[in-house]
Amino acid sequence: MPEINDHLDHGLSVLFIGFNPSLRSGETGHHYANPRNNFWRILEESGLTPRRYSPAEDGELLKLGYGFTNIVARPTRGVEDIAREEYREGRKILRAKLSSYLPRVACYVGKGVYTEFTGRRQAPWGFQPESAVDGVVDFVAPSSSGLVRMPMREIVEIYTELRFYLEDELKH
Q1: pTM for this one?
Q2: DSSP H helical ranges for the chain
Q3: Which residues are 138's β-sheet partners?
Q4: What is the pLDDT of residue 78?
Q5: Which residues contact 65 (CB under 8 A, 6 or more apart)?
Q6: What is the pLDDT of residues 9-60, one digit of tens each?
Q7: DSSP code at position 65
Q8: In what order do the strands lie in the sheet with 105-109?
Q9: Which of 100, 102, 136, 145 has the fewest Cβ atoms within 10 angstroms?
C-alpha cells in the first residue's frame, strides 16, 4: 500500500503528527480517514476548525495553518505492525521535517507518538517544558483513535488548550 502524502508548508501554526496512517487512510490517500477515528470531530469541537472537515479535505487545512505528517509513513492495521527499524528511520525523517519547516507547534496526536519520537519515558498532556526541535513548541494531545477510552469531553478540553494558545499568539 502506498504512503500517503504529508501536508507541509513553511509558516504552519500546527503540524499534527501521528504514528502512521491507517489502512483506510492508505486506501483513500487522506489523513485520519478511518470512520472510527475522531480527529475531525475533535478539531471542530475544540474550535481549532470552524466546521467539521472530512478526511478528503485534509489538504484544505493548510489554509488554516495546519499540516499533517507521521513518524512512519507506511499504512498499517495498527502500531503493533510498525518495526523498530521503521521508527528509527522515521524519527530522523520527522526531525528533519520539523527542523526544515519549523511549525509554531508540533502537536503529537497521542502520548506514544511523542515518547516514541523523543525517547522520553512519559509526558503530561499539553505543552511540554522543553522542545525536541529548537524553535518548535511541543504539544502532546490524546490520540484521536476510536479505541481511546478517555471521555471525549476531556480529549476536546486538551485540544482546546492548543486553540487558546494559538489565539493568544495571534494577539501578539
Answers
A1: 0.96
A2: 23-28, 39-46, 84-101, 111-118, 152-171
A3: 106
A4: 80
A5: 11, 12, 13, 14
A6: 999 999 999 999 999 999 999 999 999 999 999 999 999 999 999 999 999 9
A7: T
A8: 66-70, 14-18, 105-109, 137-141, 126-127
A9: 100
Domains of the chain: 14-171 (3.40.470.10)
Handedness of CA 75, 81, 87, 88 (dihedral sign): negative
CA pair distance 45, 171, nearest whole angstrom: 22
Specify whether the CB–CB gap between 120 and 113 falls below 8 A.
no
**Nearest one of 100, 73, 97 to 86, comparing CA atoms:** 73
For residue 103, give the C-alpha cell. 511549525
Residue range 63-106, pLDDT digits in tens: 999 999 999 999 988 888 888 999 999 999 999 999 999 999 99
Using alpha carbons, list the distances in angstroms from residue 50 to 40, 53, 75, 107: 11, 9, 29, 19
Contact 45, 19 (CB under 8 A): no
Burial class of 16 by CB neighbour count within 10 A (0 to 12, 13 to 18, 19+): buried
Q: For 35, which DSSP code? A: T
